[in-house]
Amino acid sequence: MTAPGGAAPVRAGGSGRADPERAARLRRLALTTLDANWEHDHTVPSRTLYPHQWSWDSAFIAVGLAHARPDRAWRELRSLFAAQWADGRVPHIVFNPALRAGAYFPGPEFWDSARAGGAPAAATSGIVQPPVHAPAAWLVHRRAPSEASVAALRWLYPRLVAQQRYLTGRRDVGGGGLAAIVHPWESGLDNSPAWDAPMAAVPADEAVMRAYRRHDTAHADAAHRPTDLDYARYVALVDTYRAGRYRDEGLLGRQPFLVECPLVNAALGVSERALARIAAVVGADPGPHRDRAVRLTEALVDRLFDPVTGTFRPRDVRADRLVPARTVLGLMPLVLPDLPAHHVRAVLAEACSPRFGLAARMDRPLPTHDRTAPDFEPLRYWRGPSWLSTSWILWQGLRTHGRADLAAGLRESMLDLVDAAGCHEYFHPDTGTGLGSPAFSWTAALVLDALDEG
Question: Which tens digits make up the pLDDT trace of 111-131?
Answer without folding.
Answer: 999 999 999 999 999 999 999
